[in-house]
User: Which sequence fits this backbone?
């Protein structure tokens, strides 16, 4: 919807001209006054003649008491609320006159619904296309529902025009008011863009709440006048990009002036107006008309509030096949068209200064894996030739108040038949090493240049480090050679399926440490290594520069330089060594470089005897560029040395690093303890789960459950009739790991659930548990896959003294060929569900299965489905947990569940974020599981749940909770007088019914924490963490940040304090880390309390904080310096990649 708000109160000729101009600007709707006077039939017909659908601006909460409202007077004066104010200074609908009506009186409200329905019905019959409803919160939600149902029912038959559209004017409404309006049936609502500062997260948070009301429209301004053309242009394109439609006041394009010539051929305004962006309005409307009309799934803020550029992502709604959503990856063949690419909106919030941001900050934050930005055709700065595509090594620079739109296509998924890693071969090693130095010849051929400590690396390249597609991987290495000659170096890299190398240059820092970078352009295994060589031309420049500075004669050195250039023209062996395996660019470019160098050689020859002229030529930028081009061939790299290992980097999508998981048992979602839940029952729960801010919905096993030795309630060995059994006892007569429990539904129902989840911005994760009930079909069809005892009985799962007779385990090393067939069958189970659209698997107890199996299986699955994510549920020895991550698990459960004290948390998080684990181990902080009811929660009450939720959400990019946590469920199981870390009446063995609105719940706090995570890049991984001193052992005080360039702290910094004692309020002296910005101890910070909404300033390093668990046991502050610190001098390349897994 492209709506122009216009005042049609002039003469018929003036109105005709105004409508003509609106149509010429590309609008398809007009918003005209519908109150106190309904427009006449002539006005509505004039709109239709110009192809404009008229919307009427109305306010149902008020009435013109003087009778000027029309021919139908109000039937009862008692309907008027004479005590209510006509307007308030903070309202946005004060331009609508009238006195308030008594909608709060139920009987009067019912009559008002019918009275308004009659009036609006007449307007619809006269040609109105719909209504913009001002002050909607002053009319009860159930009254709106009744009114809209009436007007869309039999009283207004659907015609070619459809049914009336109702748009709610919602700027400034509270979340509670939106909750009441959401079920009413509006077609759309308006966000508060005119009040946005182009930085803060509140706009996207509001838009997420408005999605429940339908389309979210945006207005660049409330009134046509703007301060300047640049800000007007930015507001216009921002509205067009993020909204599902726009509302533009007439005259906005000319700064509010009325001096317009609607009949001018080009539609432009007269001279003398403040500014004229008529062409921008026309281009924006043209761009909107060409865009997919479907509303967006979501608009997300990808940048921090203090980033130099603000980045928003408009995510397309799914197309019904699981495509086009950030939640679920594409379920079909990659060649099948999806819902279109996401849109990145990059804008400069500063009206005075230009600013820049690395494209990797945009790409790596996209929910779907993306490797390039393509200017949106028809948008501001858009191109059609594709020459302005950006990758992770690019930088985006915008002028003051500028804006750019980029399409962000997802990376293609690998296909069967594409080159893929050999899962059986050692990873990361390429035959590059030289043989031993057994002779003088061998010694002379040995590498002269040393390359050491290449990073990032995991076990010297045996395993891959983990990153996210779109990131810029920073590579560093120690590189040096004997003598004083200058060196050059490059990062060689290749993407999955490639055999040739790309390269990017490296720069030298202090102590012979070199640094370069390369982009992650696809899902899957990338490789890189480092090559260095003697830079002959740079060495000559260095030598002659020193001699000239010393006043020495350099005639001989000039001759050496001329010969150096001449030798470079015809390097030994031709233009390059055969089989170098490096992409050196187009042959035409090489020919052009050779031609330029040949011309330089000719000029040097012609200048023989004129050393001054020859030296001028040799020192010119032209010669430097030509000699640099020579180094792109192997022959131009004397003494070239290459690091002998191709170092692997595994690129995942964002959900592998940043996601919020919600776990539930589908069978308990019926809300009836006597009825087994279904997938349709889960669908009904999806909006509530998404409203809490979760983006992954995880199910325990959903397969048939065995009956032999079925467990009863509370893990009893005997089940009663009707007991559902443990879902981990997989397999029955209905099928095994590739079947659905029949009471949950069919595969058609499951597919519908996946689509419904995607439409709600959720992705499903399934449990992969390699265990079978005694009734599993595999025991009948493949008895050789299972271990038997000497008496012929099956070997059940055991954890002495416990014996799980409802579960039997497979024998991974069964006698050939059974073992290989079992491995393939287990791999095929994962592939089966991946082919049904599941791309996230939580793996049960992987530490009890062979490590080679996981390395082979994960590599094989990801070769076909590189967007697949595996979570290791391994509560075991630290080295085993680390090894599983090295072998390919994208995420890992952790000891966070049992880390409760300040010392424990500090030590554990330091280990995860500062040591070797940071490169490959992604911690997933679950606050509880169906198996683990943490002791900390048993008697800590509501504050204990808030403490653990805050720790998980604010310390890791990955966190999860098992349903019931939000209701503060904590009743433990007690056996033989001992309190167990398990739930009483565990849902693993019975159906559970819950009251999701139970008093004392923490739904609001969890929702807000997830909302904060979504709006702050600093919280979207587990890195960027530093602990600081707090003068109480009960208070944990730390910072989360995006690393900066000039200082440790970058453009998104949060300071967090958490009281770890759920029973007692604690005060603590804290240190504000001003030094991290390079600020003195007396400097100040601007603080925004993200939980309470308060803003204040702190001055000075030493402060005191009080946290009362009875109110809120934690504080989350977004902070920024009040003073701009002076930048530090550039730092030398660091020895470790600033990024991590």
Assistant:
């Amino acid at each position: 919807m492209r709506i122009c708000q216009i005042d049609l109160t002039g003469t018929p000729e003036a109105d005709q001209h105004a409508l003509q101009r609106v149509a010429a600007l590309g609008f398809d709707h007009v918003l005209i006054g519908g109150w106190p006077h309904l427009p006449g039939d002539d006005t509505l017909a004039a709109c239709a003649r110009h192809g404009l659908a008229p919307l009427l601006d109305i306010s149902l909460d008020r009435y013109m008491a003087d009778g000027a409202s029309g021919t139908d007077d109000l039937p009862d004066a008692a309907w008027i609320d004479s005590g209510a104010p006509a307007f308030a200074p903070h309202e946005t609908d004060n331009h609508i006159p009238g006195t308030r009506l008594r909608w709060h009186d139920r009987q009067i409200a019912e009559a008002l619904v019918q009275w308004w329905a009659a009036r609006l019905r007449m307007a619809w019959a006269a040609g109105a296309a719909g209504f913009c409803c001002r002050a909607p919160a002053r009319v009860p939600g159930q009254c709106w529902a009744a009114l809209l149902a009436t007007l869309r029912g039999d009283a207004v038959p659907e015609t070619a025009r459809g049914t009336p559209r109702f748009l709610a004017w919602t700027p400034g409404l509270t979340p509670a008011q939106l909750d009441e309006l959401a079920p009413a049936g509006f077609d759309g609502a308006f966000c508060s863009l005119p009040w946005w500062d182009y930085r803060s997260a509140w706009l996207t948070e509001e838009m997420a709440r408005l999605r429940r009301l339908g389309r979210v429209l945006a207005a660049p301004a409330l009134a046509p006048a703007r301060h300047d053309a640049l800000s007007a242009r930015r507001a216009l394109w921002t509205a067009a990009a993020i909204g599902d439609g726009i509302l533009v006041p007439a005259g906005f394009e000319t700064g509010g002036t009325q001096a317009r010539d609607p009949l001018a051929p080009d539609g432009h305004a007269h001279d003398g107006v403040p500014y004229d962006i008529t062409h921008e309005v026309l281009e924006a409307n043209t761009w909107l008309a060409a865009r997919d009309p479907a509303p967006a799934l979501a608009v997300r803020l990808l940048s921090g509030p203090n980033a130099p550029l603000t980045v928003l992502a408009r995510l397309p709604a799914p197309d019904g096949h699981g495509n086009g959503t950030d939640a679920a990856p594409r379920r079909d063949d990659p060649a099948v068209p999806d819902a279109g690419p996401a849109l990145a909106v990059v804008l400069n919030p500063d009206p005075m200064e230009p600013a820049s941001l690395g494209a990797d900050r945009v790409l790596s934050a996209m929910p779907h894996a993306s490797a390039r930005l393509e200017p949106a055709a028809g948008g501001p700065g858009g191109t059609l030739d594709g020459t302005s595509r950006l990758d992770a090594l690019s930088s985006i620079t915008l002028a003051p108040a500028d804006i750019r739109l980029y399409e962000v296509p997802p990376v293609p998924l690998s296909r069967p038949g594409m080159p893929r890693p050999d899962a059986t071969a050692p990873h990361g090693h390429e035959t590059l090493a030289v043989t031993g130095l057994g002779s003088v010849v061998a010694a002379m051929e040995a590498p002269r240049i040393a390359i050491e400590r290449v990073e990032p690396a995991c076990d010297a390249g045996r395993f891959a480090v983990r990153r996210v597609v779109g990131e810029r991987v920073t590579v560093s290495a120690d590189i040096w050679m004997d003598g004083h000659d200058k060196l050059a170096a490059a990062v060689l890299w290749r993407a999955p399926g490639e055999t040739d190398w790309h390269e990017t240059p490296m720069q030298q820092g202090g102590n012979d440490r070199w640094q370069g970078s390369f982009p992650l352009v696809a899902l899957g295994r990338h490789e890189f290594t480092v090559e260095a060589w003697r830079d002959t031309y740079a060495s000559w420049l260095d030598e002659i520069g020193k001699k000239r500075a010393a006043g020495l004669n350099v005639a001989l050195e000039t001759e050496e330089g001329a010969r150096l250039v001449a030798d470079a023209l015809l390097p030994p062996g031709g233009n390059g060594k055969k089989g170098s395996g490096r992409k050196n660019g187009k042959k035409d470019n090489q020919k052009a470089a050779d031609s330029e160098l040949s011309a330089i050689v000719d000029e040097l020859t012609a200048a023989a005897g004129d050393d001054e002229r020859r030296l001028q030529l040799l020192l010119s930028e032209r010669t430097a560029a030509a000699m640099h081009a020579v180094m792109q061939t192997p022959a131009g790299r004397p003494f070239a040395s290459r690091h002998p290992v191709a170092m692997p980097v595994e690129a995942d999508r964002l959900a592998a690093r940043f996601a919020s998981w919600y776990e539930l048992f589908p069978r308990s979602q019926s809300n009836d303890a006597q009825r087994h839940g279904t997938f349709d029952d889960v669908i009904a729960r999806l909006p509530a789960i998404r409203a809490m801010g979760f983006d992954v919905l995880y199910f325990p096993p959903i397969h048939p459950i065995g009956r032999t030795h079925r467990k009863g309630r509370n893990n009893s060995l005997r089940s009663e009739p009707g007991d559902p059994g443990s879902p981990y006892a997989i397999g029955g007569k209905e099928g095994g790991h590739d079947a659905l429990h029949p009471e949950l539904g069919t595969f058609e129902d499951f597919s519908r659930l996946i689509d419904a989840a995607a439409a709600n911005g959720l992705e499903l994760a399934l449990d992969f548990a390699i265990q079978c009930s005694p009734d599993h079909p595999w025991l009948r069809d493949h008895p050789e896959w299972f271990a038997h005892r000497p008496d012929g009985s099956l070997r059940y799962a055991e954890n002495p003294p416990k014996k799980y007779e409802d579960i039997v385990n497979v024998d991974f090393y069964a006698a050939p060929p059974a073992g290989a067939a079992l491995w393939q069958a287990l791999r095929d189970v994962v592939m089966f569900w991946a082919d049904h659209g599941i791309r996230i698997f939580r793996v049960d107890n992987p530490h009890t299965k062979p490590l080679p199996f996981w390395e082979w299986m994960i590599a094989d699955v990801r070769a076909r489905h590189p967007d697949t994510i595996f979570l290791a549920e391994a509560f075991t020895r630290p080295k085993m947990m680390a090894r599983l991550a090295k072998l390919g698990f994208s995420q890992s459960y952790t000891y966070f569940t049992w880390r409760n004290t300040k010392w424990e948390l500090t030590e554990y998080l330091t280990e995860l974020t500062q040591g070797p684990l940071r490169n490959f181990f992604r911690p997933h902080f679950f606050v509880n599981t169906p198996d683990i009811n943490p002791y900390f929660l048993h008697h800590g009450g509501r504050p204990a749940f808030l403490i653990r939720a805050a720790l998980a959400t604010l310390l890791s990019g990955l966190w999860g909770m098992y349903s019931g946590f939000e209701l503060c469920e904590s009743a433990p199981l007690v056996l033989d007088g001992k309190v167990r870390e398990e739930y009483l009446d565990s849902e693993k063995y019975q159906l559970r019914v819950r009251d999701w609105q139970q008093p004392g719940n923490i739904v609001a706090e969890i929702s807000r924490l997830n909302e904060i995570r979504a709006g702050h890049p600093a919280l979207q991984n587990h890195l960027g963490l530093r602990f600081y001193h707090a003068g109480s052992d009960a208070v944990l005080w730390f910072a989360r940040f995006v690393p900066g360039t000039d200082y440790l702290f970058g453009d998104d910094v949060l300071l967090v304090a958490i009281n770890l004692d759920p029973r007692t309020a604690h005060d603590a002296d804290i240190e504000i880390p001003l030094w991290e910005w390079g600020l003195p101890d007396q400097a100040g910070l601007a603080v925004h309390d993200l939980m309470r909404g308060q803003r204040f300033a702190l001055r000075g390093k030493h402060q005191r904080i009080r946290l009362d668990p009875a109110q809120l046991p934690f504080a989350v502050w977004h902070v920024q310096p009040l003073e701009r610190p002076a930048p530090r001098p550039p730092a030398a390349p660091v020895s470790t990649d600033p990024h991590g897994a």
